[in-house]
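Anyone have C-alpha cells for Cardiolipin synthase? Sequence:
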Amino acid sequence: MQPIKFHTSGRLKRLKRAATYVNLRRKRFVALLVTLAHIAGALTSVQAVMETRTAQGAIAWAVSLNTIPYAAVPAYWAFGRTKFQGYVKKRQEQIDETSPVVRHFIDLASEKQFLVPSRPREAPLLERLTNLPATVGNHVELLRNGEEIFPSIFQGLEQAQDYLLVQFYIVRDDFLGRELQSRLIHAAQRGVRVKFLYDEIGCYQLPRSYLDGLREGGVKVNAFNSTQGRANPFQINFRNHRKIVVVDGRHAWVGGANVGDEYLGLHPRLSPWVDTMVRVTGPAVQAIQVPFLEDWYWASGDLLDLDWTPQGASNGTSKTVFILPTGPADRFETCALYFLHAINSATHRFWIASPYFVPDEQIVSALQLAALRGVDVRILVPEDCDNRLVRLSGWSYVASLEKAGVKVYRFINGFLHHKVMLVDDATAAVGTANFDNRSFRLNFEITLEVQDEDFAGEIEELFLENFADSRLSSALELEERSFPFRLAVRIARLMSPIQ
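Reply: yep, here.
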C-alpha cells in the first residue's frame, strides 16, 4: 500500500503570501503613524515658535517636536503652553458679568473712604496690574502653622450666617479634611450658603465619596476644571493654587496652607510642617472675594450673589492692604512682575521664604542687582522638600546668587511651606505664590500685601526665628557633591519651566 501524501505546498504558499500581506500592511500603518507624528510635530513646532516665551524655550521645543514628536507632541500640549487660552477667552466673555460687580465694590469703597487717600508710590502699578484698589481700614492677623490656622478658620465657619466661600488647592480625606467636611455640612444645614471650590489636579486623590458627602449635605461643590472647553482637553499644566476662605463678606483667610494632616505635623517624614496664613477683616475682604467670584463663574457659569459693601475693621486698626490675584489668563505675567517690582523697590532689605525656589533669569538678575546695590537679600528654602525635582534645580542657582552677595538659607527644622516676603521695614506679603516659574506663569495664585510697620515687624520676627532654625548654604557644597548629583541638578534646571 502506497503512503498517503498530503499536498501542503499550495497551502504554505498561500499562508506565506497572507503573512507577507499582513506584514506589509503593518509596515504601511507604522509608516503612516510615523509620518503623521512628524507632521503633527512640525505643525506644533510652528505654534511653539510663535507662542513660547523665550528663544531658548522655543528652540528646545522646536528641536524636540521635530526629532522625537511621539513623546514631545503630547508633552507640549500638556505642559508646553503658558497661556490658558480657554480661560482667557471665557474670562473675556464674563467681563460683562463680573466687571459691574467689581466696579460697584470700588465705588462703595470710595464712598466710604476706604481707598488710600495718599497712595504710596507703588500703588498705581499694583492697581493697574490687578484692577483692584488698595484699601485702608483693615485688620490683619498673622496665623502660624496648623495649630493656629485651622482653629481660626473653623471658628469662622461656625460663625457664618449668610455664606461661606471655601477654596483650596489640596484637600485630603483624612482627619483634618473630614473635620472641614463636617463643619461645612453643619453650616449648610443651618441655612448658610456654602460654596466649595477645589482644583481637580491638586485633589486627584480625593475620593468621590468625600465630594458626594458634601453635596448630600447641601454644599455646592465645583472643580476648577482647567481642561474644560473643546480647545483645552490637555491643559493639565495649569492649576488653581489659591487658598481662600470668606465668611459673610466680613472675614477672610488667605495663605499657604492646604487641608491635610501634614499641616498638623503628622507627615511621616516632613514634620513639623511650617506654614502661614492671615485672617483679614475690613474692605480687603471684598477684594479677596473677586478672584473667587471669577473662579466660581468659570467653573459653574453661576454669578454669585455676595455682599459687596465694605466695612472697616471693628478694632480700629487701619492697615493698607493690596490683594493681588494672579494667573495665566492675565494680560501680563502679573505674578512675575509683582515679585520683580518688589525686588527692584527694595532699598535695604529683601527677604523671601518659599518651599519651591525655581526663578527665571530676569528674577535672578534682579536679585543680583539688589544685592550689588547693597540690599540685604536673603532666600529661605527648606532643606528637605516634597518635590525632588524642585529641590535639585534649586541648587543650580546658589553659585550665581552667592557671587553677587545673595544669601540662601536652608530650613532644617521640618518642612518650610509658607510663602512670605519682607521688603524694607513696612512692606510684607503672605500668599499662595511660590518663587518659581509655575507660580509666576502657570498657576492661579493670590497674594496679600500689607503696608504697615507693625505687621512688617511680625513678619521680621517670623523670619528671624526661621533663620535661627536654618543653615547658610554655599556653592562649595554643590561642587563637593558627586558628579551624578551635579548632573541631576543641571537636568532638573533644564526642566524648570514645567516644575
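The radius of gyration is 27 Å.
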